[in-house]
Amino acid sequence: MMPRTDGELNELLVAALETVLPDVWEGVYTGNDIDKYLTFSHYSRGIVYANDRPTVKSWRVTVTLWAKNRVNADAERDAVRLAIWRAFGEYPACENATDDGWQQYIYEFTVTGAVETEVYGG
Q1: Of 16, 19, 75, 93, which is most buried, counting CB atoms within 10 Å of its CB?
Q2: How confident is the model at residue 16 (pLDDT cuts 50, 70, 90)?
């Protein structure tokens, strides 16, 4: 399915990522104290061709796997990449980072979808 709106993309991301971990949040995690969870964020832009009207919408997506220090997340690291591949046909880039007692595995990829015609007057 090609998403048309941010909401549709959010639904697709949650459905894909919940196959890895049950705790998936847009933006900042505000839930319980757990050892591993996933967050995601994205921004979009219309892609314009010669007719000066957006033809497709492109989202740059960032998914972060958070794991407390000394918590093994090897299986989830591979599973996140596979879930993204299955849901969007994209192989994400991945970087590792640390933040205040947490390991972060940051996945970035692009999703292309249909244009919201009501937004662009089509």
Answers
A1: 16
A2: very high
